[in-house]
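Review box. Two proteins, two foldings.
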Amino acid sequence: MRVAICSIGAELLSGEIADSNATWMARRIAETGCPTAAVLAVGDDRAEIVRALEWLAGRADVIVVGGGLGPTSDDLTRDAVADFAGIGLQRRDELVTHLTEVYERLDRPIPPDAMVQADIPIGATVHPPLGSAAGFVVDVERADRPVRVHVLPGVPWEYQGIAERDVLPDLVRRSGGVARVTRILHVAGAGESWIDNELRGLTDRLATADDVELAFLARTDEVQVRITATGPDPSAARERATAVLEEAAERLGDAVTSMDEHRLEDLVVELLRAGGLSLAVVETVTAGRLSAALSTGPDASGVLRGGLVARDTNGATHQLDATDPDGGPSTTALASAVRERFGADIGLALTGVAPGDPTAEAEPGTVAWAIVGPGESRYREQTYIVGDRAIVQSRSVAFVLESLRHRLR
């Protein structure tokens, strides 16, 4: 059974936002054992949406449509799906009740146009809403075969929540095939050749297995070890992948920074919280990326006391009044000064020169960092990163976070 993904919205075509819904859905569809036949983005045009659905219906048995279910004039998905199915729209009483309750909780009158969210194609089954707009599913005959169309709101948390509850279980029931699950080990501070050597016995054994695959994916700031397993259902496939993942993690040891969607910065924040430690940061080369990485996770509150972003080391030194005993700028002195300035347990300084920086401090790509912790414990390291500005910045953040993780552990 083949599945297609169709995302609706002019903002997807203009490049204003990335289609994260389609990326997420494609990964989850793979877990059901169904191949994804096509992924298509369409603008807010009723006729174009119908044409897109016709094209996808020739290539897939199930189409998952996301977006365009709101109350505004450019939300045309429900009308286009009804056109594609050759049926009209019907206002559903239970959705009218839901919308009434939503606006009562907001203590706002219901805008006249909002009630269009209670309209779905005649005969369709409602996917109960998580926000204001409901999803729905309708079966359409095309070329003497049925095509099922699942339609979801475009807001990511609504899209994913309804898909988890209603769409993915339906795909599992209908596929009767083999599920595929991929689990990921994130490795920092090590190259592919070292990882391959450490996992050689495991990869040799898996070479003859037909239900588990192991592959490497080198990214800018890490190497991913990707373990994909198949099984009669997602649960069985996940169990097989997890067994291999745990063995690989044991072989790679401390080089593994995190697993699956868990990021290195999340792990660092967890270690800080577990130790009851706070952190202050001063950075130059990364233009605030390190502070942003440490402050975006759900557990970051209370860990990052504060930070300073400066153009160069001299500027940071001036702002923090930080000098080493010889009177010159020093990464270690900056770490100590920012720790004192924000009253944190640990001070971290990251300095260097990215390509294009108008400074003669050092050769572009030269990066240094220092960590000053409780009891004035000190650690300093320097490296050279080859690449453009974005690569130097992203790898600098990864190196520093991995260094801090190692010190915390």
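Next protein.
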Amino acid sequence: MAGFWRAILAVTLLFAPAMAAPAHSMIPSAPETLAATATPEPQIASTSEAGLDERIATRIQDIFSQLPSLSAVSVSVSQGVVTLSGTVPDAAAKSRAEAIAGRVDGVVTVENSLERDVSVDGSLDELGELSDRMTSIVKMLPLIGVALAAALLISLIGYLIAGFGALWQRIAPNSFLAELIASAIRFIFVIGGMVVALEMIGAATLLGAVLGGAGVIGIALGFAMRDTVENYVASLMLSLRQPFRANEWVVINEFEGRVIRLTSRATILMTLDGNHLRIPNSTVFKAVILNYTRNPQRRFEFVLGIDAEDDPTAARHLGVEAMRSLPFILDDPEPQGRVVEVGDSNIVLKFLGWVDQNETDWYKAKSRSIPAVKDALEAAGFLLPEPIYRLRFDPGTQLPLAESGTAAPAKHREPATGKVPEVPAMAASDIAPENEVKRMVDAERAADPESDKDLLDSGKPVE
């Protein structure tokens, strides 16, 4: 209890001057505030205490004598200035000696005149230290062996778990993602084995340095292999999204062909002339994809011109009736005719028709429809436009046919009847789809179904 009251009295005496001071004196100025917050530097005494230099030198020399690397250092002190001389084994020992001397009470400054020992004896001492280190490493060999065995055992467990391919195939939506999961499991177990091994030999700090360096190297490699990483990620996304099926007729940007397979690196097409085309998956993932196979109904169109004096409405209806009379043209959607342009000497008509690609070849249908409509228009008396050139002669120029007095008779034109002529029957094989490329793709896939681990899965929904 007496100690408690003694503490209260001490605190009161400490704050009594501040409480008695004026209020304005309690608020320090800005310089005083900065001075109070800054760490004050030790003041150098104006006089030197008798025998202080000898005590400082003795204290520093006693400390150095306990350190093998600093035992050859000589110390002299004058007016608080410490001078270090002699030799040390390396630069680290030189800095260490200066730091120790500067921490002794009463030292004003340190003059470091130490030099590295490059003599044969010094080198032999370093070899002795190296020998001691090697001896300690040899003693640790059994522990290192046990640590390596533990790391290998943990890694082996990871490889065994990753080897359950059927399990990962069942969990993952496709083989590519299943392989990615297995690789991640192997990587995690290998890293875990390394951590355990380094912990056992007491080198856990080394793991931090290794992982830090690996992180920096990984960032550098990421920038250097940006395209490869982008292609790998695109392959993963395409395997999940399934944008097309095998043997579908697609156009990817400017590349056209039938899909052979989707691999972890590229999409392989067979062009319409039978050549293999490999497109990087990073390009496919960002590309505009046109799929001709997804919807079997496909439209074709073409334009024809008639004379400017003819009736475009009658010609349009006549052309549509001619297309409707063709057996391969679908009634739903029905064919159409449009007036798209009126020129100086012609009227341009556009005709559109739909076909079923499962039954009719698109190119054949278009090539059969154009002459059918053209023949129908001509048979009904519509004139297809011809180039017209207008010639102008000067007043005094003699015309070539003026002397003969003969001129070519004007061509008599029959009026347009608007009647659709009879379309000759055509064989079904004339318009059958061309499936040569499709058969080649099927044959290639059947010959090597596991080639490059095809990522296309007909059982998954298409995006």
